[in-house]
Write a structure and sequence with these properties.
By secondary structure, this protein is of the alpha/beta class. It has 14 helices and twelve strands. The strands form three sheets. Strands 7, 8, 9, 10, 11 and 12 form a six-stranded mixed beta sheet that branches. It has a four-stranded parallel beta sheet with strand order 2-1-5-6, covered by helices on one side. The protein has a two-stranded antiparallel ribbon with strand order 3-4.
Amino acid sequence: MTPPLRVASLLASGTEIVCALGCEELLVGRSHECDFPESVKDLPPLSEPKFDIHLDSSTIDATIKSLVSEALSIYRIDGEKLRELNPNVIITQNHCNVCAVSFDDLCEALAGLGLESVEIVSLEPNSLEDVWNDIRKIALALNVEERGDELIHKMIGMMDRVQSRLGEMGKSDEFLPHRDAISHPNIVCIEWIEPPMVGGNWSPTLVQYAGGVDLLGKAGEHSPFIDWETIALADPDFILVMPCGFDIPRTRLEMKPLLAKEVWKNLRAVQDGHVYLLDGNQYFNRPGPRLVESVEIMAEIFHPTLFDFGHEGKGWERLYQKI
C-alpha cells in the first residue's frame, strides 16, 4: 500500500505552487520564507538564514559573498525537525544558492538522517517556460498532473488577456509592441540596490507581457550585477525597483542613499517621476502562481488608463511625484 504523501517545501514559490494545485493539506513543513497563503505560517519552519536579514543591502551582499567565498551555505536546515516530520516529498531548488535553500544544502542535511524513499523535487526556473515546467514537476510528484496543466493554462490565459487589451496580435510568446511609442516604455528592473543588479530570468518576459521593453535584463539568463553608469546610459522611461526578499517599506528605506547620487538625479525616469517601488518578495522574485499578478502590476504602471487591477498600495507604489 502506497503511504500518504507528506510534503516539505523549502522554497516559497514551491509552497505556493503546492497550494495552488489544491494540495495544501499534504504540506508538513516549510522554509522560513514561506508565508503565502497565510495559512502556511502554521507549518513548522525547517530553515533559517545564517545572516541578519535586517542589515542594509550592501552589507547583506558583502556577508553573502563572504560565506560563498568560503564555500559555506547561506542557510541552515533543521535536520532533526526534518527527521521528525518524515516527509516523502521534499521541494527545493537548483536555481540560486543565494535566494533559497539549495539542492546541495538539502543533500547535506539529509545525509545520515535515515529518511527512506524521499523524492526530491528540485526546481530550476531560469525562464518563464521553466516555471511552467516546475509546476508540472510538482504536479507529477503529487499525482495531480491534470491540475498542473489547468494551473498553467489559467496563468497563461490571464497574461494573454493583458496583451489582448494592449492590442497584441498572435501568440504571447512572440511579443509585438504597440505602434504608439508611449504604449511600450523602455524599462529597467532593479533587483538589488547596492550593488545594483537588474532583473533577468523571467523578468524581461513579464515586462513584455505588460507592454514594456526591458533594456538591460535578458530572458532566460541570471540577473547580472551592473553599475549605475550603465543604467544612466540606458536612461529608461521607467525604473522598477523590486529587490529580492524586500517588501515595499523595506525597499523605501534602502533607497535613501541612492537618492543622493548625482547619477540617479539625472535619470529621465527620476525627473519624470516614473520610479516605482514593487514588492519583489511577494511577487516578482517568486517564480510561481503570482507571476500573473506581477504582470498585472506592471500593466497598471505602464498603462494606467487601460488597467486597474487594484494592486497599487499593496504590490506597488510610486516613489515620488514628478519633480
